[in-house]
Design brief:
alpha/beta; about 20% helix; about 375 residues; single chain; binds iron/sulfur cluster; TIM Barrel
Length: about 375
């Protein structure tokens, strides 16, 4: 996903696991954190249960972490305190920034508007190439955080001329409670919500999230269970199920795939993935192929060659996908949105910057063909 490019001071980088994570850890409990913590918030009772007196089981993501009292979960944000599941992610954002919505990336949603972007430490994946690992692989309480009450976020966004709040950079599933509370308040104040996520989430909390979020950038990181297991410490099947749930809920979403040289750049797999997208969720689903920048535990790899991204782009088009993009490479013709009917350039971009917009009421300004997306 998109790396943080604004300057931030990172006080501590101590929570990165030194486990050489090449497979999904058998134990879901990774740490205990004993100090008294500010800004804890009980997880909604719909999303966890208490059993045997003091054990808890979380229902937010497919890991369904079972914790004894005092234990912290896999995503590092929730802790069992005497049978009560508390989130340390609540109102503890480590990133607050203003970004173009194109950076998520979302190219079919309110073009050229800015988002107030929020992130909290923690993640329920372990991607070896994480672009924001200093935040995602840390407990929230070990980072330098900002004071930002959920109830203050919509007004904060408006004061910065942002009519959209983005939950991004780290994994919003790990700060689900903070995100959903903000999003509900924002929706009441006519501020939009967008979410960039790997979508490793259970169907019920996802359906709840869909009530508040206007658009999702979904990181479908590959199309191979072995890749999900060995490189991401996760599983593919629940992600595909989540994508189908988004479609069933009629939510707007765009798919994002970072292409990692030698890891997920098998063109047959790319074709299989594009075919699945076209057939299962439809050819109007935009897909963004991203250029990998060496980071975290895969620093020895090169950047993705541009011809590889172009080949992925070509395959997606051959499989019938109508809106195919390349990101992290600019300028490039695949930064633009083209009308699938007349092939004219409807939105011209330079990277994340919109240079020209020929959309009119959600239609191509040249031939009036409807272009799918969230435009108003
Ligand atoms: S969201 Fe976090 S606490 Fe809940 S099941 Fe997933 S990893 Fe465990």
């Amino acid at each position: 996903m998109t790396r943080i490019i604004h300057r931030r001071e990172f006080l501590r980088e101590t929570a990165v696991l030194g486990l050489g994570l090449t497979a999904f850890p058998a134990l879901k409990v990774l740490a205990e954190f004993e100090s008294s913590l500010p800004n804890t918030h009980e997880v909604d009772r719909r999303w966890y249960r208490t059993f045997d007196g003091t054990h808890t089981q979380c229902a937010v993501c497919p890991l369904n972490c079972v914790l004894e009292s005092g234990q912290t979960c896999f995503c590092r944000t929730r802790r069992n305190h005497d049978g009560k599941l508390l989130s340390h992610a609540y109102e503890n954002p480590c990133v607050i920034s203003i970004d173009p919505i194109e950076k998520l990336p979302l190219h079919h949603c309110l073009p050229s508007q800015n988002t107030l972007s929020l992130a909290v430490g923690g993640c329920n994946l372990r991607c070896l190439y994480c672009q924001n690992w200093r935040q995602s692989q840390a407990m929230p309480q070990t980072l330098k955080n900002f004071e930002l009450r959920a109830s203050d976020v919509p007004a904060k966004a408006s004061s910065k001329q942002c009519q959209i709040i983005a939950y991004t950079y780290t994994e919003p599933v790990a700060f689900f409670e903070y995100m959903t509370d903000i999003a509900a308040l924002a929706a009441r104040n006519r501020v939009r919500n967008v979410c960039a996520s790997a979508m490793f989430i259970n169907p019920d909390p996802l359906r709840e999230l869909c009530k508040q979020i206007d658009a999702f950038a979904v990181a479908l990181k590959g199309f191979d269970e072995k890749f999900y297991d060995r490189v991401l410490g996760s599983r593919l099947a629940p992600v595909l199920k989540a994508i189908e749930t988004l479609r069933a809920e009629k939510k707007w979403f765009e798919i994002v795939t970072l292409i990692i040289p030698t890891y997920n750049d098998d063109l047959d797999k790319i074709r299989e993935m594009c075919r699945w997208i076209a057939r299962t969720v439809g050819p109007d689903t935009p897909i963004h192929f991203g250029r990998f920048v060496p980071e975290h535990k895969l620093k020895d790899l090169p950047r993705t060659p541009v011809p590889t991204l172009e080949r992925c782009h070509q395959i997606a088009c051959e499989e019938g996908l109508r809106y195919v993009y390349i990101f992290n490479v600019a300028p490039h013709e695949a930064n633009n949105t083209y009308c699938h009917a007349c092939r004219k350039t409807v939105i011209k971009r330079l990277g994340f910057k919109v240079l020209e917009n020929h959309l009119s009421e959600g239609r191509c300004g040249f031939c009036r063909t409807a272009i799918p997306g969230v435009w108003v």
